[in-house]
Amino acid sequence: MSKTDQRSTAASPADDLVALTMLRERERILACFEMVLDPQKFGAQAVANGVREAHPDPANPRLLSLAWDKVSFRDLVMDEAFGWDDVGEMFRLFMGRLEFGLPWWKDSVVEAYAMGSDNFAPASMGTLENRFKILGGWIYNNKRGQPASNKVWWDLLMSDPPQADTENRYIRICANYEEMQTYLTMNAILIDTNHPTFCKKYARLDANPTDSCITRRHLTLAGFIVADLQSCGPTMLLNGRPTTFRQPGKTAGTIKWLEGEYRPYIFGVVHPEDDGFPEAFLRVLARSPDKFIVISRRESDPPMKLDVLSGASGSAANVAQTRWRQFDGPASASTPPPASARGAWETQRSALNVLYGGDEQKLRGGETARNDGYLAVGFNNKSAAQGRREISMFFHKQFPVRYLLIIGADAHQHIHDLAREVSWAAFTALGLVSGSYEINRYEKASDVLFLKVVRERMAFMPENSFKVRTIT
User: Fold this and answer.
1) Does 246 fall in a domain?
2) Which of 180, 301, 318, 367 is the most exposed place for a label (fewest CB within 10 A)?
């Protein structure tokens, strides 16, 4: 063998142990990304390994600099400069979409469908000067301002199903109310989607713990977006009768009695325009003042202006959500005095407080904490127990809505029952039911609505390509 042949043989990667070792290392790194081809497997493994808890730095240019002259994803990973630290950073970026990358993630899906269409024109994605090529594909640096289609939202939700209590992050990338309705409706169609915490914290012994979650989905499909549910508080408020602690009253031979009312309520939004469902829905609610107290606010109104639409008179400050009264009764009596002899009520929390705060809550140790309302600035700036900012569902929205606060007229009603009555009113507004609530007719109407919405939203797919399972 000549010296030239020896040099050629020595330089061959097949015989170079160092090159073989490096090549195998490249292949091991590349194998980490095989699951990218299977998004469901990718998401399941990443969540199981706690990748979602990591916090990548979006300002770090390393990955961009590595990808700048590469023609494919494989080309990037097989680069000798791409190491295990970059693997971890790539995973954190993939699973950090809810933190900082969600708008770009949505835009990339929109652009992918646009580029794959037969009538695609590059100019429709933006000016050609505002794009650059990464890993063999074009990246546009202008944000999409148009609502995304049902198909786009379906792929977004299927590629990484939203976790509980993250709806506000998706709402911030919605262009208008209709797109928010599209997102939440598609989310409701996903049977296994994690429910918001506020739906699961009021389970009854005589009901399925997810009943309120299911009812909330029905309301979403109908057109009422529910952001919170609140039920009765202390146990003594649930029994529907006054309580005594056997303390002496103001006069001899009497004891003190305490009676409280804590009305359940639902906070949410409807379309800001009066036409169609919102008008019909409010009209049905107004027909039952013995069941619902309805407070409304339009964002075009002056600051803190609230309209009491039905169920009560006067201003929202006069509508009691929580109220108490103390009175004296005979010490020997086993039952409290009649209602006519119990004195006047004292409002502790009004509908105005629910929406704008201002009331105080007594804590253990005698301390007090100021409550923040859903529409108050303070509500959106306090920290949750996990150290995250607690942000209301509509804090990031960029479009007008009409807020509704529906308070149960029955002070001792469970929130599940109130939610079902409100959902029945929504079904009535849609012409699905009439008369008083009946469980059998309710379930039938919810199935009809669900199937109708599924067929409308999933029209982009062949009908025999998916199975429909109701959510009742």
Assistant:
1) no
2) 367
